[in-house]
Amino acid sequence: MSKDAWLEQDEFDVIVCGTGFTECILAGALSRLGKRVLHIDSNDYYGGQTSTFTLDAFEKMLIQSTSSSIPTSPGVLAPESLLPGSESVPLAGVPPPIIKNSSIARSLADVPPPPPAPVEKPVPILTDSNGGVDDANTDSPSSETKDPGEDDTPAPSSSSSSSSSATTFNESPVSSTSPSPQDVDEIGQALRDLHKDSRRFGIDLAPRLLLSTGPMVSTLISSSVGRYLEFKCLDHTYIYVDGLVQPVPSSKGDVFKSKMISLLDRRVLMKFLHLVQDQQQQEGGDGGDEAKSGKEKEGSEGSASSNPPGSFFDFVKSQGLTGNLQTFVLYSIAMAAADQTTAQGRDILSYDAGMSTMRRYLGSLLKYGSTPFLAPLYGASEIPQAFCRLGAVYGGVYVLRRSAQHLLFDKETRDVTGIVCSEGQPLKCKHYVSGVSYLSSLLESTPSVSSARLVCISNASITASSDRLVFLVLPPHTPGVDNPHTIHVLQYDHNLSVTTASTFLIHLTTIASPDSKTVLEKAQHLFMRDIPSETAPASASSSNNNDKPICLYQAYFETEVPDVPQVPPATLPHHVHVCNDGPIGPYVDYEAAIEEARKIFSEICPGETFLEKVPHPEDVVWEQDGGETPSDASPQGAPESASETPTAETPSETKTTDEADPKPTTEQNAPQEESQNP
Fold it and tell me: How many Å apart are CA 564 and CA 446, to the nearest integer?
């Protein structure tokens, strides 16, 4: 291979492979501490399994995933690429695709071209002998007068000579339940507009919401990384119960106004919510700390005992919640992804996890808006990119379209010594961090986490209200859907800069099962109708659904991500750190990614501060010893200059800048620390 693409710097403290959430957070934290970090990825985009794509790129990726391509082996390593005293093991330079079973119901490539514009044929004008216009012949041309190339079929006319042709033209009137040709053409034009405006869409592989007081928002504020991001607070949250879309109460007043909760159940629910809040206050938490060990403080009336139930569902039942109250608490507040009445193994929502999520949910209410949820502008991949910006500012080197082909380690100590990248360049390092998929050749087979997603684009909101940013929960076994697991529905609009002004982007997510596609399509039909066509006219029974928005685009896919083994195999060299490729599950927030990054950071830099806050430029103290002037001195805590290596790539900064904080469009649309935007 040519050495033209080799990096000028070939020795680092840490090499990170993959740009998923955990890898980006960790790389930013290590660079902030002053470590020499090389961050590489085999893809040409940031975010890994949580990336955001334009509509064309998203469809192209789904089409490519259907081809059974097996990653090629890196082959035998050349002896000159080996470091002295090192051995090598091959790696998966290009990880296997995580997307499977994808299908596109309405491909942009299949959109018919626009109909040709009608050509107005000249009408022959007859004149009399004096050169004037013959009025008797201006209404209808003579049947014997034809344009060149015109066939013998008479044109429809009001004259008696073409009355039979007019009758034939009107013999098949359009049915009252069939769309008119004009409507079909308008829909076709809307589909063509989707293709034309492909770059205005931002489709997430793994859309997730942030709780206003959740771990990710707290991390963004404490590390000052939030200054690179902008957020919007969702307009409303709903739950589908008893065949109706019911608003999830966000205050005491909403609880007593809710139609899905009886008068007696309202008192039971308020008592339960007060119990959770009282325990939170006794423990001194605000809902943003890590989950406690499950040992609740004693002495609170109605609180859990020192030995709480094994599952959150058992605790809910012990507090007297039944029927719709259980559904409301388990699936719209505690965010249980599986049916808790029959859940087994990892699907069971533990008492600790349920209480922790409830506390954060209640603590996030009315923090920045009417709901506890925040969504990032431009897509979920903006969050890992923000940590990449932090790493680049503090000297991290970022290179896309490059991966590790071989892992090098010392023959005697088995400590990792470096890698050989896809360009054939040996790179030295003391620690190597990688996602599971890149180390598949060294790790034993581990269970996978699978999710099913249905991405739709509609021409109107799926709710009858004026809400545009919506989170909707379909509990397990919803009538008409028969879903074995919870379905989370997210509706985004152009205010998040992920769709056009005339369309809505809808994400439906659930745990993958053999019937996931059928289940999600049934859920979609609760709120949307398919595109009408002249060849498939609407039936009389479906005429009642004409008030539903039209689903202009629909794509289905499943994601499968292996778990990190609890105990690393003995064949793994020392100082190799494995992290998840996700998060991919249908859950809320990024607590698992943050805790995983914190754990690996403590292994690499024990005793150091994780993601120390970046000083504000106005708070920087300049050293002027030895005659230095503020213009040529180095500020305390200021970042080093980013790498100038021509082959290194830094994250795109087309949407946010490092010089100024993002300006929120409303007073409560972005996390704040006192009066400072992140």
Answer: 7
- Looking at every residue in the chain, the average pLDDT score rounds to 76
- Contacts for 342 with CB less than 8 Å, ≥ 6 apart: none
Greater model confidence, 578 or 446:
578
Contacts of 559 (CB under 8 A, 6+ apart): 49, 98, 99, 100, 205, 206, 450, 451, 453, 584
- Helix axes 55-65 and 181-196, enclosed angle (nearest 10): 90
d(CA 96, CA 75): 17
Rg, C-alpha atoms of the chain: 31
Measured distance CA(422)–CA(406) in Å, rounded: 9
**Is the pLDDT confidence value at 644 over 60?**
no
Is pLDDT above 90 for 519? yes
Q: Which two tokens stand for residue 31?
A: 């660079």
What is the distance between the alpha carbons of residues 605 and 25, in angstroms, rounded to a whole number?
A: 14
79, exposed or middle or buried, with CB in 10 Å at 0-12, 13-18, 19+?
A: exposed
CA 437 to chain centroid, in Å, comes to 20
Integer Cα distance of 236 and 227 in angstroms: 26
pTM exceeds 0.85, yes or no: no
Alpha carbons 459 and 25: distance in angstroms, whole number: 37
> Amino acid identity, residue 465?
S
Task: Select from 91, 56, 58, 89 the least CA-distant residue to 73.
Answer: 91
Give how far the C-alpha of residue 598 lies from the chain's centroid of Cα atoms, to the nearest Å: 23
In the DSSP assignment, the letter for residue 309 is -
More confidently predicted of 552 and 667: 552
pLDDT digits (tens, 9 = 90+) for 240-286: 988 888 888 877 777 777 777 778 888 888 888 888 877 766 665 55
Helices 591-604 and 21-33: crossing angle, nearest 10°?
40
Measured in degrees and rounded to the nearest 5, phi and psi for residue 210 equal -110, 135
Percent helix, strand and coil across the chain, each to the nearest 5? 30, 20, 50
If we measure between CA atoms, which residue out of 415, 420, 402 comes closest to residue 75?
420
For the cut 90, the answer to whether the pLDDT of residue 536 exceeds it is: no
- Say whether 592 sits in a helix, a strand or coil: helix
3-state secondary structure of 507: strand
Q: In angstroms, rounded to a whole number, what is the distance separating the alpha carbons of residues 429 and 575?
A: 10
CB atoms within 10 A of CB 103: 12
Question: Distance (Å, rounded) from C-alpha 232 to C-alpha 224?
Answer: 18
User: Which residues face 673 on adjacent strands?
Assistant: 676
Measure Cα distances from 168 to 121, 154, 157, 164, 235 in Å: 22, 11, 12, 6, 54
Contacts of 99 by beta carbon, 8 Å cutoff, 6+ apart: 61, 62, 65, 205, 557, 558, 559
